[in-house]
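Bump. Still looking for histidine kinase structure tokens.
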Amino acid sequence: MRDQPLGKTVSGLVSASRCGSVPSCPDTTATATRQPVSATRAREALLLTCLDLPGLAPLFEDLRAVTGLSVTLLDRQGRVLTTSRCQRLCTALLRPHPTAGCVCTRHDIALAQRLEADAASFTAPCPHGLNDAVTRVDIDGLHVATLKAGPFLPGPADRDHFDALRRRHDLAEAAFREALDELPVIDAARLPAILSLMESLARQIATQASAELRARDATTRAETLAADRSVDVRHLQDRLIRLAAHVPGVIYQYRLFADGRSCFPYASDGMREVYGIGPADVRDDAGPVFAALHPDDAARIRESILTSARTGAVWHEQYRARHPTKGIIWLDGRATPERLADDSVLWHGVIVDVTGQMETERCLRDIQNRYRLVTLAVRDGTWEFDLRSGQGHVDDRFQDMLGYPPSQHDMTVDEWLSAVHPDDVHAVRASIRAQWMVGETVQIEYRHRTAHGGWTWIESRGRVLERDCGWPVRLVGTNRDISDRKAIEAALQESEARFRGLFENAPMAYVALDSAGRIVDLNAPLCQMLGRPRAEIVGQVFGAFLAQHGRPTGIKRLARILRDDQADIVLDLQPIDGAMVTVHMVGQVQRDDDGAFLRAHCVLHDITDHARLEARLAQSNADLSQFAYAVSHDLREPLRMVSGFLGLIEHRMGPAVDSELAEFLGFAIDGARRMDRMILDLLDYSRVGRDGDEAGPVGLADVVAEALANLSATIAERGARIGTAPDLPTISGRRSDLVRLFQNLIGNAVKFVPADRRPRIAIRCREAGAAHWRITVADNGTGVPPEMRDRVFGVFERLVAENEVSGTGVGLALCRKIIERHGGDIWFADADDDALGTQAGTGAVVHLLLPKQSADGADDATVVRDRVTLLETLNTHQVRIVARLKNLSDTIAHRQADRTTVDGEIEFLIREVECYRVFVHANADGIFGFGLSRDDQDPRADADSLVFSVHQLHRTVEDQDPCTPAGQQSIGRTLSALLGHVRRSHAWLQRRRDDRLLKHGIAGAAHGPVSDPPA
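Sorry for the wait, here they are.
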């Protein structure tokens, strides 16, 4: 831009404006002449006279020097009041022209009307294709003038448009082109700062005019008071003070004497608000005010006052002061100097607190700096488009995303759309149109062509900065490379599709429940199980599908899954065809990060056939028990008769019986008696769990005390010392069976201590996990060899001969049956040297594992059935894992493997073993409680090891090629380790499963042993 003074042209324009001779549209002038001057118009004219127009011209020149724009003050009729040096295109060519000047005047009037309707500042194009920045000047609450900065160009001049304008108005070509070249070009980034500066100037003009208006009012009142001596002078002064008190800031007069003294002859009460000093305190000496100035600004303020006094220029400064209560504040001061007859200078002015404005400007700068830092940190690119011209601009970051050199910043709208992927263009256009017509922001995702011909995913966010008749014309925004996110989303969609296929094709039924027990998702097997289509099931309460006879109990069990994080229950479902289905449901609750309930995921296993077999077996066992009871009684009668008659024979023969015959008779009588005892023991064995007390809370301390009382004679005979733990718990069970249990264990402990040794027995108790008690009965006897520790629990199994220790070999079998009827376990372990003081390795130690008292009072049958189903589910998991391993092993063994096939098999295998581990950890207490002793392999550790091995196999496949012999050999070794884990895991289950199920009176497992995969 070339700054050249316009001389008489500007002066003539200002003078002509004040005289009302600005070229204007004849119609507008005629209309204005015909209209009467309203009271508002008269008020405007009065307020305009309060403007210090000569004093504003230098300020406008300063603003012009800062912004590069001409600044003009116009009244609401478009007449120029004062202006800085102007661009010749308007002042020398367009405004003097009869037709073009009329257009300019109408445009200025339209701007004033728009400001009247909306107080906000704005930039607007004029009919000639130039732009102006305008704001309104309000004096005493009335819009009286328009402050305009311009004209300017928003971009390079459209030569064709301005040539047409010149020809239309018949303007000199050379002068027109020279004036056009002088026009400044202002980019959009500078406009907010220019508008903010103009608003600040408009407020200062209004403040100065308001002060002038009030000063005039005060002067008028003073003259009236002087003319009317009957008016109370003090009363009028009070009114003036109250009036000044309502003016923001302080209205003051500051006087500087020739000798350097200074004071404030007059200051409104706003002096307290601005400086925290009373007006009377500075009436004779201005020292307190200068003492309140910030040390960094005091010297500058003193120098500016001396400069204003020397040159007569308006004093205007922004500075800081220390307020006694507000702290450091920012002030804006403006005053007009007047030299008095005694060579002193008197300033008339106003000082206002602009701390809020300065803070706002500082926040704006901080926001701009933070925005710059954020764009640097997040590596987002920025863009800007002007839809009127079709031109755009992108930054280095966006160019770098696409692989273009940083110098290529310009991009048109058409160029941008041509670089969008053809499949995305229609969606991008529709999305932009739909979002920007209803709001100010837009967010789209599309593929953009790179410099190398490829495609990269971009997320673009934009905002409308300017609209024209409701249509967005100027847009800014950011771009972000989201290729990685899109790749992850594609992988997730593929994984979800695979999971959905596995979910729908899984052999076991699945259902997801919300917190109210309503069904939110299920798979095809459950639809088949219920005999209903999916649409009729989703949204229904799951309890509605329970069998009518067991619905109340089933709903309570179902509530356990929703209440607890995990649970496994047995339910009876009623399908639409009427055939009841018994299922084992295992549930796991899903919660969010805050612990709130999301869903309950449940797997259902159809155990209808198993339950039917269980019922049939229970009936068969009942019949068998009745048969055994009857046979036992019938067998005892012949034995009693044999024993009786043998005794009569021995009595009749008397002395005739020789020693050999007496020995034979003794053998026969003793055999009959032992047979009778064995039958009695078998009767006791068959009665376990059927006769005696009902199950309920039983204190083990009372049980042990009763057992010791029953054995008191034997204990006294052997002099046995028995120590009982004082903290024996209370459990749920049958008292008579538990008394028999401890009576047999303590009796055996006393009986198997050698005769030359005093029996010592210790009964201890401790917790075994959250659900069980572990009770130990230790003695100092002969002990049980390791190879016999499992056999001794069989019926009629003995450690020693009958002539060494009496007994039938049924006692320990009876103990195991009692324990297992109570849902526990019993086993022998090595002796230690703790409470008995014996040498480690001697004596016998019997461990009893008993469940704690059930909180919900579930009966034994339910507990047993749930645990049976638990083992069946565990076995099912193992069979499925082995099937996966077989598939993978067969594929590699027959050299049919490729990486895709192996990766797919391993992915399914990982999911299977993860489900297996979760199931084992969630049900560990139930697994141990069923009778898997702690001496066996811990299934939790084995499951963890299995998962680790599968992940190790995955890493091996990633490192090795399954199509090569070396890769097949490496993968085969890892597969062998995996199969070893599964075999060990299945071994302890198979070893315990069948005998435990049979001893509980339940049919054998549904699955056979896990076989080895092919070589």
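The domain at 381-481 is CATH 3.30.450.20 (Beta-Lactamase).

Edit: fixed formatting.
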